[in-house]
Specification:
elongated, 15-stranded parallel beta sheet, mainly beta, 35 strands
């Protein structure tokens, strides 16, 4: 059995599923939770897991299932270190994450996953999503076609009407940084994205596979704000597909094929005071829904000609835009 409070220096090793079925379970600073192959923690409905400064690690050299939150469960997660899980935190519909601050997610397939929406989600603030070494082997489930053993698939992955606010976080060595899908809403402020890789062979910006995007909004999602972010090395810095980048401002992008790519824009978009050093397109606007237009102001575009195969370069590129757009006071 697990004590009500797992204190500093104490450890447990889990085989199978640990059900958190008491009202409040606490994992204190410097406690260690080790997971055998495919083990997981399941926080039951009406129960709370409070974890501060704990370490979560594999103990058999195989990835484990991480922390799963049932409908009606609550998680407070502050200052923890979680490594080598399929999903560090897998929050199911109806669960609540009250606190998600100053944690390190390392070598997980996905750091935070919200697969079916409906999660009461606090601001995701001052977390690090890293991949400092190769991922551990899997037992084939739930990730049986992993893209790469070298880097994580993504830091945060959210579906179906999820609303999230991400601030002061770092994403490094991921295939994707933040993905918001299926009518989700996201705000991203003062985040850093480094080495967001596209492992797809030939260059492709059109979602043959979801690879190489620091921030991605898709399937009728909305980015309320993306501001004050640094993106250094990505296929595409900010990518939108049949969604709306409502306000993108004061960002710095370097070593990107495409800075911003908005395809099928579903609302008016404003891009202001961004600095983009690009290899192919600075901002690429394609086939917006009729009546919606972009505004691009006060931004700087610098062509990076390191990759000779990208012979044509455009600071701002419009494709299928049928209404007058505002492009003013920019530097090329």
């Amino acid at each position: 059995s697990v004590p009500i409070e797992l204190s500093s220096g104490q450890s447990i090793c889990l085989q199978g599923t640990l059900n958190i079925d008491r009202t409040l379970q606490k994992f204190k600073s410097n406690s260690h939770i080790y997971f055998g192959q495919s083990a997981k923690i399941l926080v039951k409905s009406g129960k709370t897991l409070d974890s501060q400064g704990a370490y979560y690690d594999a103990c058999e050299g195989i990835m484990y299932r991480g922390i799963e939150l049932e409908n009606g469960s609550v998680l407070n997660f502050w200052g923890n270190f979680i490594s080598d899980a399929y999903y560090g935190i897998n929050a199911l519909s109806g669960s609540t994450i009250k606190l998600i601050t100053e944690n390190e997610f390392n070598r997980n397939y996905v750091g935070i996953r919200i697969p079916d929406g409906g999660v009461n989600l606090s601001t995701i603030i001052q977390n690090q999503f890293l991949c400092e070494d190769y991922l551990l082997p899997t037992d084939g489930e739930p990730v049986n076609n992993r893209v790469s053993d070298a880097i994580s698939w993504g830091g945060i992955q959210a579906y179906y009407n999820t609303t999230m606010d991400v601030r002061n976080c770092t994403f490094s060595r991921q295939i994707n940084g933040i993905t918001a899908l299926n009518n989700s809403t996201v705000s991203v402020d003062n985040c850093i994205f480094l080495f967001i890789f596209a492992l797809i062979g030939d260059v492709d910006y059109n979602l043959v596979k979801l690879h190489g995007f620091a921030i991605y909004c898709g399937l009728n999602s909305v980015a309320i704000k993306i501001a004050n972010c640094t993106i250094d090395e990505a296929l595409v810095g900010i990518r939108s597909n049949n969604s709306n980048l409502r306000n993108v401002s004061d960002n710095m992008m370097m070593n990107v094929d495409v800075g911003i790519y908005e395809d099928g824009q579903t609302g008016n978009s404003e891009f202001n005071n961004d600095s983009i050093s690009f290899r192919k397109y600075g901002i690429w606007i394609k086939n917006p829904v009729l009546g919606f237009v972009p505004t691009i102001k006060n931004s700087g575009f610098i062509s990076d000609d390191v990759r000779a195969y990208l012979s044509e370069r455009y600071g701002v590129y419009f494709e299928g835009v049928k209404y007058s757009s505002t492009v003013e006071n920019n530097y090329f």
